[in-house]
Design a protein that fits this description.
Number of strands: 16
Oligomer: single chain
Number of domains: 2
Shape: elongated
Number of helices: 22
Mean pLDDT: 92
CATH superfamily of the largest domain: Alpha/Beta hydrolase fold, catalytic domain
Largest sheet: 8 strands, mixed
CATH class of the largest domain: Alpha Beta
Strand order of the largest sheet: 1-2-4-3-5-6-7-8
Length: 613
């Protein structure tokens, strides 16, 4: 089954140094927590919403940190460590890094096992684990309100929080569609999990076989004085003796027992190398747990990356690397293209996918240009695809040469390759109008970031058709019907950028320069290029209408948290378009006069309008 993942507890620089509690005794608080050194952050962000209750117990609360985005964001679901007897949701690991990557974060508290034991919950570990599942369902119920992609949730945590994360990753879906409680209808599955110092099994026999001086886990099943957390690890012998009686409960709450072939991928990291069958300095957080889980996952076909000092085949040095890659990876194509990887040029990147809408008459077309700073990204899964096809609008999604490839090939300036590829791809599409049943007049462009800048460049650029060319494709028009874009850079003039947003740092790579400082210094020399490839410089009164969408409110002349995607770009373009007489709708949080809340709504209305532009 498709499962969602738990995200790692903290970003840490990996030498590898993951300080863990002393091995021979529990900490003074009774909590065997994994302490991971995060990147030093001058000031951690405050929660967007703090202490949101997801249940009635005082510990059933969570903090939500919202990443800025006009589209639903992936989410890190953080479960703190502390042996299920201590710890707190404050300052979740990887917080700042995830927010900067466009990943929202939830950090939860849960009932401690000693509280559950006093309340008569059997076994006590049921409370913290099922609280985690309930909190996950609650978060999914808020997906629309909090702008979350409920499919892309990854869990993370350290020690007991890591064990809880793995339990969620491997447990069958606990949703109850028949429940009278709508929150219970939500899935408990994860997309991935990345954890630190995880206990992968709660079976005392396994623990003793893997690590003879194991002492952890009895408290999860009630072998502890609940009024003294220091008593937590003193009853392992009793736990081992009662193992056979407890086996059904162990099988329910031990991650190792729950692994099945449909589970999501996981990542585990430990501070010391494994030594199966040998006593360990810290038996509670030994990599022996990771080795045995990885072997088990491999047998069942579940991806499990294991990292420790000297580990082979390390692909991701930190949980953060892993989580960002997994949560931000392109989704598999849910709607296979009608024609895939069709070449519009000779370069390997000059390919496109065509999705044909069902219609007896020629259809409008959305021309999608992916983002990625002209340095990365892919045409897979163009945004809004399903909505466009349902509205009877065909879709083309293109790849194009990256600027670094253009620089290596001697293209000057490098951005010329990316932008002119988009123009040539558009001409190629028009040359296929009859064959593909396309209305070649009604083509609207869209994309995000660099793809948005490319779309605006096409929208504002004078006609590039060449009727005298020997190539019939070059006879086709490069003009658009409209464009609607997400977080575009509307200018590539470094002076304008600095004037609008003082901490601007984007655009040098487009012209083959090494830094923004060099970009500013050489501005006068490259001004003709800027005039040719900057959308703002190209606006004229005969241009088609545009809409620009941003995740922040503008503040001209002020530093911005994300200067590369600030709505300052949009506000200045809108002012410029208004002066010239080109319709430009601007959407951001709190924007006035919003007529189309979504890009898809704008394009569908414009492309399907019965009258002219």
């Amino acid at each position: 089954m498709k499962r969602l993942l738990l995200l790692p507890a903290a970003l840490f620089s990996l030498s590898i140094t993951l300080p863990l509690p002393a091995a021979d005794a529990p900490p003074a608080t009774g909590a065997s927590t994994v302490t991971v050194k995060p990147k030093v952050e001058s000031k951690l962000p405050e929660p967007t919403m703090a202490n949101v209750p997801y249940g009635t117990h005082e510990r059933q609360v969570l903090d939500f940190y919202k990443a800025k985005s006009t589209r639903p964001t992936p989410l890190l679901f953080f479960i703190h460590g502390g042996g299920w007897v201590a710890g707190d949701k404050k300052n979740p690991g990887g917080l700042d890094q995830c927010l900067k990557a466009g990943i929202s974060v939830v950090s939860i508290n849960y009932r401690y096992s000693w509280q559950a034991q006093i309340a008569g919950v059997n076994p006590p570990v049921k409370a913290p684990l099922e609280d985690a599942a309930r909190a996950l369902q609650f978060v999914r119920s808020k997906a629309k309100e909090w702008n979350i992609d409920k499919e892309r949730i990854g869990a993370s945590g350290g020690s007991a929080g890591a064990c809880s994360s793995l339990w969620l990753a491997f447990h069958p879906d606990m949703k109850d569609p028949k429940s009278s409680d709508p929150i219970a209808h939500e899935s408990t599955r994860l997309y991935c999990a990345a954890v630190i110092g995880a206990q992968t099994s709660l079976d005392p026999v396994q623990l003793k076989e893997w690590t003879p001086n194991s002492r952890y886990g009895g408290h999860a099943f009630g072998f502890m004085n609940p009024n003294d957390t220091k008593d937590r690890d003193k009853h392992f012998a009793e736990f081992l003796e009662a193992r056979d009686k407890l086996l059904p409960l162990i099988k329910e709450y031990s991650p190792y027992e729950l692994v099945s072939k449909d589970d999501p991928p996981v990542y585990l990291i430990y501070s010391a190398p494994p030594a199966i069958g040998q006593e360990q300095k810290d038996p509670t957080h030994t990599a022996n747990y990771g080795v045995k889980l990885q072997e088990h996952c491999k047998e069942l076909g579940v991806a499990c990356e294991l990292v420790y000092p000297g580990a082979p085949d390390v692909k991701h040095k930190t949980p953060y690397d892993y989580l960002v890659e997994k949560l931000k990876e392109p989704a598999p194509n849910r709607y296979p293209p009608t024609i895939g990887n069709l070449h519009y040029g000779s370069h390997e990147r000059q390919v496109m996918d065509f999705y044909k809408a069902e219609s007896s008459k020629p259809t409008p077309l959305v021309f999608y240009i992916h983002g990625g700073g002209w340095m990365g990204g892919d045409k897979n899964n163009p945004g809004g695809l399903q909505e466009y096809l349902k509205a009877g609008i065909s879709v083309v999604s293109i790849n194009y040469r990256y600027v670094w490839q253009a620089k290596e090939a001697g293209v000057v300036p490098p951005v010329k390759a990316s932008l002119e590829d988009a123009a040539h791809a558009l001409q190629f599409v028009r040359s296929k109008a009859k064959e593909w049943n396309i209305d070649k007049e009604r083509i609207g462009a869209t994309g995000g970031s660099a793809g948005a800048c490319s779309s605006l460049w096409l929208d504002f650029h004078p006609e590039m058709a060449d009727p005298k060319s020997d190539d019939p494709i070059s006879h086709e028009s490069t003009r658009l019907w409209c464009a609607a874009v997400n977080v575009p850079q509307t200018t590539l003039d470094p002076q304008q950028m600095k004037d609008w947003t003082p901490n601007s740092n984007y655009g040098a790579h487009a012209f083959g320069l090494a830094s923004f400082k060099e970009f500013l210094e050489k501005r006068e020399q490259i001004l003709p290029w800027i005039a040719e490839y900057s959308p703002y410089a190209l606006v004229s009164k005969d241009d088609p209408p545009v809409a620009c969408y941003f995740g922040d409110a503008p503040a001209i002349g002020q530093d911005k948290k994300d200067p590369t995607h600030t709505s300052n770009f949009g506000l200045k373009l809108q002012e410029h378009c208004k002066e010239i007489g080109v319709p430009c709708e601007l959407v951001y949080p709190g924007a006035p006069d919003v007529q189309h809340a979504k890009i898809e709504a704008y394009l569908i209305e414009k492309l399907k309008a019965p009258s002219a532009k």
